[in-house]
Amino acid sequence: MTDLDIDLVLVPVDGSEESHEAVDYAIAIAREYGASVHALYVLDESVVRAIENGDVDETDIADDTESFTDSVIERAEAAGVPHGNSIAYGFSTKVKTVHPGSVVLDTAEEIDADFIVVPREPVTGGPGEVLEKAAEYVLLYASQPVLSV
To answer: Alpha carbon 56 to chain centroid distance?
Structure first.
């Protein structure tokens, strides 16, 4: 059996309780392997549509996600784990192939993630819990090892 070589753990989040749990797992894995953790905040369809229609300002959305990402930063720093974060649209009105799962996997490739921790959202989740649509897709198509929590 070969040891995993993990330098970067990606954790897609959407602000839900399940996301907080996934972040804790991602930080634990990163700490164990001496890796960094990157939290990707995935915006859901209603938020993306509101931005594209001009109903909401993208800056306001960034401000809204800041408290969650601040929580990730605090927990990573407390564990001594290097960290990063970003925000991505989990939906597109222009490109049919853009959905939460593809956004997660595209980001994993772009940042060269070695491991993915994905929250396994309940199917009855609220509209802000976009990752319920991503978990199965990521589990099926990721080229990296995936932990679903």
So the answer is: 22
